[in-house]
Amino acid sequence: MDHITGCPVCNGFDLLEVTCPHCGEMLEDRGRFFDLLADYSPYRPIDDLKKSDGLVDWVTNQCPHYLYCRHCGHDEHRMVQEHPL
Predict the structure, then answer these.
(1) What pLDDT, on a 0 to 100 scale, did the predictor assign at position 6?
(2) How far, in Å, CA of 56 to CA of 39, rounded?
(3) What is this structure's pTM?
(4) Please, which domain of life does this record's source organism belong to (predicted)?
(5) Which residues contact 26 (CB under 8 A, 6 or more apart)?
């Protein structure tokens, strides 16, 4: 039986609060990395996107978030561990 998991940040259970390693300002969570890949990405099934985004998120049950610093322009990806729903 498959276990259904979900991202606690995407589902509003947690906040992703990360400071910029360059300037110390808070990074802005711009959402799931794969939603930014193409115009219709947010409408595709999440598991389908995870199989084609080039990351190991499908195997590890993690959700890749894109973070950006408005102050200095630094950006990075942060993997959030998914939890059973």
Answers:
(1) 87
(2) 22
(3) 0.76
(4) Bacteria
(5) 17, 18, 19, 20
